[in-house]
Design goal:
The chain is α+β, with helices and mostly antiparallel strands and about 140 residues long. The protein has one domain. The chain contains four helices and six strands, in the order H-H-E-E-E-H-E-E-H-E. It has a six-stranded antiparallel β-sheet, with helices on one face. A hairpin with a 3-residue loop joins strand 4 and strand 5. The protein is globular, with a radius of gyration of 14 Å. The chain starts with a helix and ends with a strand.
Amino acid sequence: MKKLVFAAIAAGLLVGITGCGIDDDDAKDQLTGTQEYSSVDEIGSDLKERSIDCTPQRDSTSKVFTTSGRCTVDGTEIVFGIFTNDSQLSEYKSTINFVSTTIGEASYLVIGSNWVANCSADQDCADQIQGQLGGQVWTSQS
């Protein structure tokens, strides 16, 4: 129930979030997270190169990111955002902290040089995305 409430609150605030399921076995060249993306389509391409079928559907509702989108992997959703400055990322993290504190459940983000992947309360998802795209896992307050 908490996940459903969390997803509904986050969707209203930003772009909606849940979890993911990914297999690390088919990874190509290791990415470090320092790669920059100009669109969520490029993130999808890197994931497809690593045998993860992800074609992000762009969100037109994001008030935080320059570009955002989501893709469904194994029946669940990952939300991606492209930011152009640290204040966009800080605003997003603050909102996620607020939602997480409100419902008492942590959220996990993978943060790269100019991108973020939100795996909601699914730490395994964040670890798997980090294994594919690099970056740092950030855990919200709860």
